[in-house]
């Protein structure tokens, strides 16, 4: 949430600077200038333009680095070192889940694909919020690594309309506390 607030402030600041630039240009547009003043203005505007470009470039690089350095999606070609592995295949209108009983506190690797059309794979926590999501696509396997911290019944749902019975495309995962063998 803090990151969104920072982006909001940066956006408003940028919009304000653009607005000030327009106001300045409008108020100065009708003013006559002699040749020396025009040459000085041209040099100043070129310097300002270069400085602003460099500042925006550095800001863009900084924002990109800050937002992607903790990229939440694992590299798809590397092993994920998970304690539990769940293979998931989406079909119209069901999920085939290789393992539905999981242990909280241990990383789970979900390998998600589809046999027919694209599906939106999402896992909902017992309180109804989405904890992970990815695309289930024919011919491609997406991997997601997630650690369940709270025991309970989690619901798998399809987030992409896939046909007439899309609304019934659900499955459940039972996440037990560590040491609970029930």
Order of strands in the sheet with the most strands?
3-9-8-5-6
- End-to-end distance, in Å? 37 Å
- The CATH topology name of the largest domain reads Immunoglobulin-like
How many domains? 2
CATH superfamily of the largest domain, called what? Cupredoxins -  blue copper proteins
Poorly predicted regions are none
- What's the CATH class label of the largest domain? Mainly Beta
**Per the principal axes of the C-alpha atoms, what is the gross shape?**
elongated
Helix content: 25-40%
Report on the biggest sheet: 5 strands, mixed
Total of helices: 2
The structure class reads alpha+beta
What attributes does this structure have?
alpha+beta; Immunoglobulin-like; five-stranded mixed beta sheet; four-stranded mixed beta sheet
